[in-house]
Amino acid sequence: MDVPLYFVSAIYVPHDSYLCFYCPLYLFINYVDLQAEILALQLDSAAKEKAAQEKAAKEEAEEEAEANKKRHLNAVFIGHVDAGKSTIGGQILFLSGQVDDRQIQKYEKEAKDKSRESWYMAYIMDTNEEERAKGKTVEVGRAHFETKNTRFTLLDAPGHKSYVPNMISGASQADIGVLVISARKGEFETGFENGGQTREHVQLAKTLGVSKLVVVVNKMDDPTVNWSKERYVLTSNILIPANVDILISFHHPLLCRYDKIEQKMVPFLKSSRYNTKKDVIFLPISGLMGVNMDKRMDRNVCPWYSGPSFFEVLDSIEVPPRDNGPFRMPIIDKFKDMGTVVMGKVESGSIKEGDSLIIMPNKDPVKVVAIYCDEDKVKRAGPGENLRVRITGIEDEDILSGFVLSSTVKPVPAVTEFVAQLQIIGLPEKAVLTAGYKAILHIHAAVEECEIMELISQIDMETREPMKGKVRFVKNGAGVVCRIQVTNSICVEKFSDFPQLGRFTLRTEAGTLLGTTMMLSPASWVFSPSSSSSVVFSRPQRLPLVRSAVDGRNEIVPPAQSQIPNKVLSLCLFIVLLVNKVHSLLKLLVEVTESVSVLKTAAKTRKVAAEEILAAFSAIEKAKVDPSPFLETLGGSESPGRTWMLIFTAEKKLKKGRYFPLTAVQRFDAAGKRIENGVYLGPLGALTFEGKFSWKNRILAFIFEQIRIKIGPLDPIKIGLGKKDAEEEPSNKDPFFIWFYVDEEIAVARGRSGGTAFWCRCRRIAS
């Protein structure tokens, strides 16, 4: 920049005159200041440019490191209890350097003190005292290890039939499965025969999307098997070395055992829809001794096996296809750690720090603060990774297992009802499946109670096409299209669009596996006269509007134009549904009338069985009788109101109940909105609570303001309990009753604690 040596400077002075003069010194000072400012700007610009270059280089290095990162697989260990899953898991961690010798010595001592010397390797995976004491895995164990080319997340699933729901949770997160089978005499048969968990675990794994299976035959070093070449076989009273090649009519007993297991498993795996040539690998190991695990075993140990080691097999398995669609991460657990942290496996898409996401089905917006993968903090992560994600915008108590961390652009659908194709593979003998069947639904990390509302059509298992004709029930081995309703909203996808969130299983509390494979498209509209659900009509043509099946909106939408029936069909359908509705209402009315009669008899005689009363409670609660006349019937139209005597009380969920042993009455004054609750002991005295109540719909909320105690002939003692503002009415935060039935003789209600009771009308007992 060229600056003249002299310049004219005009300085404003108060006397409205300009002073013009030459000032070389002033020019020099300003010139120096200007050059300093220019230099400072140049340095600042260079520093910013350097910082930007360093940041770009760092991000590029991170991206390169991410690209060069080992591939990742989730492996779930499944199989019958005591097959050695936890022991193998512990041995893997030891051989891969995740556990040192000092920890192993500690576990050996602990196991020896409990007289369980062979369990010490399992202690690495089974960390809580209950698991170590029983020798049975309860929760899904989780650990990480690496082979030459792959990072693994190891999921140790429980093998006992009591913990199958936990096994389902582990298998739903897996890419590959490791089926552990015990070669010990009697143990394979126990796990494989009916009632054993080997079969059920295989079927569940396939249903849950585990397409690759490594079958490890464990405990090959057991004395009942013994793969040592020095083993001798006694035949015809002559000792013959097992390694001597003799033409006799028997095989080496080890080969017999291994071959027997393989020959029994292969047909079963095929029937479970596994491709045994491409997707299944068999190999023998000893989990306790670590033989044929990290490296191939010596031919002196097992002359007949020359295949790869367990680690080599795991390293050679192909990574299943990953979905790069919208972000989806089912939440398996949550906790507080400098904020809210959620855990889960990324099923689709990618995530990075700073992302704005949404937690479904509650639609809570959150922001990603930090991401942890295999205990390491990372900037971003892709599909297949098991992550811990720290988020803001929500508290951990507002998150449940089964919620899904989802992208905001295309969030995961949340529904309470959907149509699905179901395959029945585990019903008990002579049992059938009908509408109304209740079970537990397991889908990704969610567990919900559900009910099969309608059987739509049966599936031909050969052609996989729906069969014509009405279906009333199906038996074991059949396939059926059905409509399923769940208690709370769950996150699901159509199987054809997103298999990972479209697979699910149904199980009863007894452990019966129902099994399932796919969701149906929402374009499949079904009209069934046998359906007990209501159908909404809103257009002049009376075209039925039915609930969309897993379309992401869970709302009422019309069918496609090509599927709209003609007017005659619509009218016929309307008449049929109307008749069904009237029939259902009449049936419900009869049930309520019969139930009320049972309760009135119980009030008079106190001889009706508790089971009958509980059944009457259930029928009355389900009926949801119109509550509009309840308050006047309960409390009368004038003070002092009406008095009711407590007859029978039942526990929460109507599990059991009994006749109330004391004389307990309640007075309700509808005009004055007052309540009085008393227990009377005849000449001994009485205890009475008095207060006010409010009424909304069928809920009566109340607060007590004073207690009146009367002992014998003495005057009553009154004790104040403190009063709310006179204008403030009781709310649902206060004690309340939910009234299900009230007439001139009896009343039925449920309290805040969940217990149900009924009263009969009586004259007021004088104080």
Automatic annotation (TrEMBL):
It comes from the Eukaryota. It comes from Brassica campestris. Signal peptide: none annotated. GO terms for molecular function: GTP binding; GTPase activity. Gene3D superfamilies: P-loop containing nucleotide triphosphate hydrolases, Translation factors. This protein promotes the GTP-dependent binding of aminoacyl-tRNA to the A-site of ribosomes during protein biosynthesis. Keywords: Coiled coil, GTP-binding, Methylation, Nucleotide-binding. The keyword Iron-sulfur does not apply. SUPFAM superfamilies: EF-Tu/eEF-1alpha/eIF2-gamma C-terminal domain, P-loop containing nucleoside triphosphate hydrolases, Translation proteins. Pfam families: GTP-eEF1A_C (PF22594), GTP_EFTU (PF00009), GTP_EFTU_D2 (PF03144). Residues 43-75 form a coiled coil. Belongs to the TRAFAC class translation factor GTPase superfamily. Classic translation factor GTPase family. EF-Tu/EF-1A subfamily. This is Tr-type G domain-containing protein. Residues 70-322 form the Tr-type G domain. InterPro entries: EFTu-like_2, G_TR_CS, GTP-eEF1A_C, P-loop_NTPase, T_Tr_GTP-bd_dom, TRAFAC_GTPase_members, Transl_B-barrel_sf, Transl_elong_EF1A/Init_IF2_C.
